[in-house]
């Protein structure tokens, strides 16, 4: 039964150009782990990580990238964003569930895209696909994401996909939280 699978296994979906799937499910041997680690090194550039947590910045060695990868797998439902056309990883999605709720989850979401993939509509397509997936998963109550106040592109992505400003406040005044409450069909 799909409903009882862990979140990272349930959250697999496609959009028009993207494939979203658990990173952990793609690491089956040392070679696949190495390829994923090298992709982390390639994608986590200073521009990509500038607004992310300090421990996500300045990843410059294979060992640091490997540790970063293992930590993300451990702390979240960690998903890759791949281009459907060539199966290339272009970014990552991070889902953090509110484990205090038993039946309906409030998922905190985050994502990053490599610089080469900015301004191509991939963020919007990804978030739209995530909302569509969440509407089909009967255990998801809401999606919540934080955006830096000066990241106009990400703010537009959230608003375009039905998110509204949340009353949540973080420790950082430079972040605005957006929430999308999932309306479930009665049928």
UniProtKB/TrEMBL annotation:
<dbReference type="InterPro" id="IPR051531">
    <property type="entry name" value="N-acetyltransferase"/>
</dbReference>
<keyword id="KW-0808">Transferase</keyword>
<dbReference type="GO" id="GO:0016747">
    <property type="term" value="F:acyltransferase activity, transferring groups other than amino-acyl groups"/>
</dbReference>
<protein>
    <submittedName>
        <fullName>Acetyltransferase (GNAT) domain-containing protein</fullName>
    </submittedName>
</protein>
<dbReference type="InterPro" id="IPR000182">
    <property type="entry name" value="GNAT_dom"/>
</dbReference>
<feature type="domain" description="N-acetyltransferase">
    <location>
        <begin position="39"/>
        <end position="187"/>
    </location>
</feature>
<dbReference type="Pfam" id="PF13302">
    <property type="entry name" value="Acetyltransf_3"/>
</dbReference>
<dbReference type="InterPro" id="IPR016181">
    <property type="entry name" value="Acyl_CoA_acyltransferase"/>
</dbReference>
């Amino acid at each position: 039964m799909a409903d009882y699978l862990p979140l990272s296994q349930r959250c697999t979906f496609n959009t028009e150009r993207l494939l979203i799937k658990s990173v952990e499910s793609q690491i089956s041997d040392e070679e696949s782990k190495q390829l994923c680690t090298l992709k982390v090194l390639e994608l986590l550039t200073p521009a990509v990580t500038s607004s992310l947590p300090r421990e996500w910045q300045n990843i410059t060695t294979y060992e640091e990238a490997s540790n970063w990868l293992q930590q993300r797998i451990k702390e979240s439902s960690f998903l890759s964003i791949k281009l459907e056309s060539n199966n290339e990883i272009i970014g990552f999605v991070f889902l953090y569930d509110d484990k205090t709720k038993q039946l309906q989850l409030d998922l905190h979401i985050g994502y990053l895209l490599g610089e080469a993939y900015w301004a191509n509509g991939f963020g919007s397509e990804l978030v739209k696909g995530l909302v569509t997936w969440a509407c089909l998963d009967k255990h998801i109550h809401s999606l919540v994401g934080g955006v830096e106040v000066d990241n106009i592109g990400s703010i537009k992505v959230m608003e375009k996909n039905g998110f509204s400003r949340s009353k949540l406040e973080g420790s950082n005044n430079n972040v605005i939280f957006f929430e999308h409450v999932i309306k479930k069909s009665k049928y």
